[in-house]
Amino acid sequence: MSFRVRFTPEAKSDLERLYDFLAEQELGAAERALEIIDRAWSLLEEFPFSCRKAEESNPFLRELVIPFGSIGRPRRPSYELLPSLSVQRRGEDGWIEVICGPMFSGKSEELIRRIVRYQIARRPAQTFKPLLDTRYAEAEVVSHSSLSVAAQPVADSTELLQAVEERTVVVGIDEAQFFDDGLIDVVEALAGAGRHVIVAGLDLDYLARPFEPVPTLMTRAEYVNKMLAVCHRCGGPGMYTQRVIDSDDLVVLGATDSYEARCRRCYDPQEASQERLEIAEV
Ligand SMILES: [Zn+2]
Asked: 5-87 has which fold?
């Protein structure tokens, strides 16, 4: 019989706080700490019953002691042993996070921040972006402030699903508004199979219409962060993407100077075509 080890919710939040703490430390200290944690975990692989019982009456609830000499107090995340006949079963821990908002609201930066956090914790992560988004770099997600994380360009949602590896726990998806509506089912399937899916994208197009599939994904997500930009005109809360050049295309790619973030008062969907008329009159 094999056993599956599941961390209790309290242990998970302990570890998350620990990783947040480590992420802020000097790199060498954080790396040493991660080695200690790795060793503690690999012990479980061989001797799942080696740690002491957390409750006298429950042999399947144990405490994992992670000894930190110089870093802080010893941590004791609890874990449960679940007898299982399969090697590994997923399906309990998946969820969907959506990061939405206008251009210049820091969506890609926030996606990168969350992915890097998992990478520090050595959780297998894959990030995807639509093939058509070729600005800045081919195989990365790059924010306007030049943070980056490796990202695989895929043609559509089907190709994305096929590209997710068995071991992957965290799936990041950038520029979700450029995907087909099949992305909704794909993201649901990934979360249903135990993946943490983090989706970033525009919720509104330049005419302030819902930009699918992001709005539907927001309704399917456990966690939604609506980001705001700073209005380029008045400094107010920028919720809209204002197009400042004239084009009927839904998307003008790679032309960040064709857009501004605008607040409710300063946003005007007709502005670009009006400006063209003014130029035509001169
Ligand atoms: Zn404004």
From this structure: YaeB-like fold (3.30.2310)
For residue 160, the surrounding DSSP H or E stretch is helix 157-163
| pTM for this entry | 0.63
Handedness of CA 179, 271, 242, 129 (dihedral sign): positive
Question: Is residue 172 within 8 Å of residue 128, measured between CB atoms?
Answer: yes
Domain ranges for the chain: 5-87, 95-228
Counting Cα atoms < 13 Å in the Cβ hemisphere of 143 gives: 16
Residue-wise pLDDT tens digits, 169-227:
999 999 999 999 999 999 999 999 999 999 999 999 999 999 999 999 999 999 999 99
CA 176 to centroid of ligand 1, rounded, Å: 26
Structure tokens at 91: 């399906």
Residues in the chain: 282
100 CA distance to ligand 1 middle (Å): 19
Q: How far is the CA of 102 from the centre of ligand 1 (A)?
A: 13
Architecture in CATH for domain 95-228: 3-Layer(aba) Sandwich (3.40)
Catalytic residue among 175, 212, 271, 278: 175
First vs last C-alpha separation in the chain? 82
CA gap 77, 68 in Å, rounded: 13
Decide if 175 is catalytic: yes
